[in-house]
Records
---
Amino acid sequence: MKPRVLIVVTHLLGVGHLARAALIARALMEAGSSVRLASGGSPSATVDLSGIDVVQLPPVHCVGADFKTLRSKDGEVADESYLATRRDLLLEAYAGLKPDVVVTELFPFGRRQLAAEFLALLEAARATSPRPAILCSIRDILQPPSKPSRAAQTLERLGRFYDGILVHADESVITLDASWPVDKALARRLEYTGFIADRRRAKALRLDAANGGEIVVSGGGSAASLRLFDAALEASERDRRRWHILVGHGIDENRYGELVAKAPANASVERARRDFPSLLSVADVSVSQAGYNTVTDILATGARAVLVPFEDGGEKEQRMRAEHLATQGRAIVVRENALASSTLLSALDEVMSLPQPGSAATIMLDGAGVAAKKIAAVSARALAVSGAWEKLHLALEEIANAGETLAVWWRDDDVVAPSPALDRLLRLSKLFEAPVALAAIPLLATEALADRLAAEPRVDIIVHGLAHRNHSPQGQLSSELGIGQPLLDRMAALYGAQARLRRLFGPKVVPMLAPPWNRIGDDLVERLHEVGFAGLSTFKRRRAREAAPGVLQVNTHIDPVFWRGRGGLRDEAAMLEDLAVLARETVARAPQDREPIGLLTHHLEHDPWVWRFVEELLGFLAAQRAVRFTRPAEFLAEQMLRA
């Protein structure tokens, strides 16, 4: 089934954002998808939206480099009422389409001024069942975050709502970390599509005999390029070559008329044309700013380029893109504050002395087509996840209707000290009334941790080895309590480890061992009862109710961290389907043989996507009639009564 896709884009100055979104929409439509494009910027004469289902929101724009002040269609400051109307129309567009995929262009990396409407849309999507896949679409270079907190907020919003980020760039040319802090969590969610170039525009019109061998000057779709046009006209008066100056439709008619009147005989001035790549393909040099779309056309045509990046208001995006291409020998850069007819002519001489740029065949330029395929793939994954949630729900409903209950417990490993991640974990425990067994590392646990947990009634402390150090011989799987040390030494160390935790945490400690890496020597398991342990927890289904005489085995079964991959979240659908099977198999056993199902987390290792899954799973389980949360203090007490 081809997905229904909602693309949401707002351009504030130039039209590059809208142009990219339109090309992705067309690629999706050509692949058979239904597409609705919600545009929040001013309509553009140079972006072809024909045949696309467009919802035009009340437009906003910016004046100059003042991106903080949004202005309405009439040029007034956009007030709360105006923005609320935009938000309501956006939500109507979402509800009317019922999309399988939502794509937000730039947000949450940018467009913070419009966060209210984007977040309203994302919350609506998150509340929909089945939930649509959500993707962010960004260009190659972003305006770097002004402070670390903004990058952190962006990552948190991505983790809470998004399934992935489409980066419209070729990794061989530039990667996102050139402009934005990319940690492991974000890197795992990036999908590079290649640059989005409109190949059809290069063939749209046949070139006139007068075209070719020109210096083509362009400035995007806004008035930000007026300084470049003025400098180009002055340079053309001192030069014998033919100049072709393309003026964006964002420049008013009076100013456009002044440029036309000022042009010497060897320079022609006209409005921007949709066949711009055709002009570049036969030009001697392209002179332009360094916006994404223009640079992509330069890369696609292999044109020699002089780039004058827009830098007003502290903007860094275009300068970074221009300088990156210059280091690869693809352009000469003239800084905006040094722009004059003389510097422009010098740059032209310099660029003409450089080798012709490499063939465009080596650069990924089908970004729209690749994006369409990735959008279809993420839609399929989202459907699989929704189906898996439904399978789990049906399994638990069957259990409840049969009058049975399913015991579930939660273990979290490697706790040693207070941290924001631990606070987040404890908030989830409180929110869903789900007790959590914290596997504390005895030799590293701190007094501060004991103080933090003193007033937490839903917390049990279990013993997590000794110091979480690997003692296995080289070449063997990691283990702290395996065969790497003498048995009596391990027994004595474990006895002391539990005693230390009891001094720190008092009655919160239960006599249960969770060995690091979930591995322990069989010889030590047989002697655990002798050193004060009544329970053992590793991973996967247990083979017997007791690991050894007097030692109850209660394992964990679902771990959302993809340890064998690059970290991050494991396949959600697979985990949920495994949990549904495990639930049915558990209640099929005799009551005395049923093992509580265990969720295993590692709060210090969670990225935002893992946190989202854990929150969703706990919330889901808490709402099920068949589920009863249990804890080591409870099931070990039952074991002792039986003994």
---
Amino acid sequence: MTELSFFTPEEKVLFRSRYKELLGCLYQFLEKEDIHKMRELMQQVVVQDCYGRDKNGINGLLRNIETALIAASEIGLRRAPVIALLLYRPVFKKIVKLEEVEKQFDKDVALIISRLLKTSDLYARNTAVNSENFHRLLFSFAEDVRVILLMIADRLYMMRIGKQLTSDNDRIRLATEVSYLYAPLAHRLGFYKIKGELEDLSLKYLDPKQFAFIKKKLNETKRSRDAYIAEFIAPVQKKLEEVGFNFDIKGRTKSIHSINNKLKKQKIDFEDVYDLFAIRIILDMPNATKEKERADCWQVYSIVTAMYQPNPKRMKDWISIPKNNGYESLHATVLGPQNRWVEVQIRTRRMDEIAESGLAAHWKYKGVKEEMGLDEFLTNVRMALESTDLDPMDLMKNFKMDLYKDEIYVFTPKGELLKLPVGATVLDFAFAIHTDLGSKCVSGKVNDKNVPIRQVLHNGDTVSVVTSPAQSPKRDWLSFAATSKARIKIKQALREEAAKSADFAKEMLQRRFKNRKIEMDEGVFLRYIKKKGYKTVTDFYLDLAEEHLDPNSVIEEYLDTEQKEKELTVHHTEIRSAEEFVTTTEMEEISRKQDVLVIDKDLTGIEYKLAKCCNPIFGDEIFGFVSTNGIKIHRKSCPNEQQMRERFGYRMIDARWSGKEGAGDIVNLRIIGRDDITIVTNITSVISKEAGVTLRSLNIDTVDAFFRGHFSVLVKSTNALAQLVGKIKAVKGVKTVERLNQ
């Protein structure tokens, strides 16, 4: 590569060195003309100031070469992604066209550049990376895992030269982004070393005092720590050599970031952290079968635990059954010299390379929770990387990152991210922001273009909502609203609007009746509505409000119905309306005017009847129902309550007991028990002995060695009933006691 005038002498030397290293990493993967084509293109764009220095004085070309070297040597990326990285900036600045890149190299290089452009557009929105949806949208935009790996490489380089950033705010922003997004991404992909370095550098810039404190403490304790490791290792090493193993054994100090997390989580001082390091035993077993590897690892385990007492609760066997991310290792925690617990990791060279170099999805090993779909996807990535039959990077081309194919992520005008299902519209977006915004939505703007509210949104769209105070939800909105929130709010608004219209129509009809001096019989009117084919009274009034019915015709038809019923009554017995739900009984027909109940707004002394459908007694939660034959009292748990509320909610009134027990009310009990000649006698004996309780009737039948009895008892209150039920349940042979509605 020719010398470039925009380099300083130091940068020129560094650039040449890095360029040679990069060629060394990629040489066997490059095509014949790649180097020549790259040199010509780079020289062409450099003179157009494509790789000029940024505001921090960092040379753009040197940054690209350094990042490319990390991508190739530390991550393992090959030809297409590295060439794409080097040519991304010329394409971004529109000095080189994508079509030219594809012609000079190939479609894969051009495709990676186009995906890098999409991710740069995502960052241009100034969206906060700590948004919970950002990493999902990043995956959707990147599409290709190689793009994510290139971004990790770039952030790693920028963190390594973090001191060169002139602005503290820029340094903190970068460290925050890396800490929240790129370190976890490196962890997910199994790049353990890179993940650890990113985390340590993030802590260095975000909390420099704590970083310096831990680093100083580690330096101060290094001599004693090294001495302890040597003391621990010596007998183990001697024994393993005697047995004939080829191995490496070393102590690995934990990262500053992980030590800091431990200090925070356990709220302890540095001196109280006992596991600052782990001992790792790595067996050299080239060409050994996996069965042989496992056997030797277990043999080493037995040697270590024979010397040092193990803690069985902290033993982890990921050799017999490897983790589904491919991680294999034996972990033992043993009591070493000076009664200190030490973690020992036992693995082969193959296992260690997988765990350390990123070829295993190492995040599960550390207990990081993953989104659904990501696990399976990255397991496939690992399998591709481990493949010996094909170039792993060629296989990586097939891994399109459509992990969230059922979701889209769109922006608000302020750059905030919103998650919606695929197929969501502008209307769904509006309701997701706020119900009032959805209800008043008349149109929208998507990427600064005016669109209707039914416009379907796509990943990365920037959406704003246009509203009008005159707008209200329409029934046809339900045909294109995709989110449950939007549909629920639309239906709710339509119901509320329908209720208002129905109330208006009802008042209007009542005025018409009053103007014609007609006394409406509510029972007759409800039967008339039913004969018209309406399922609910609301439906009738809605048709009236929408002028599908003529009020004068309704009145005439009502009068005709009333006249026919009067004529029928003369010749036949009284017709009972279906709206009364249930037939009455002798007990129900007893009208009461006792001050036991308070009805509606503190009214007492009103005649009422107890409904047979639920047989309320003193103490039950109750309500009143105004029927053509007076007020019926029902339990709130009445089986007909929902139907009455839906059809005749306006006729339901509040009711409560006044605090004075009545003479008593009938309650029906169903008792099931073991068939025994004495059980009925025992039950009736309990009932007769109970104060204030009278047995009115009983009916017994027997099925398959069980008896089923129906007992009608007169009780004064729910408290008395509860006491009675408790005593009946205590009778030998009784299985269940259930209060019946009828």
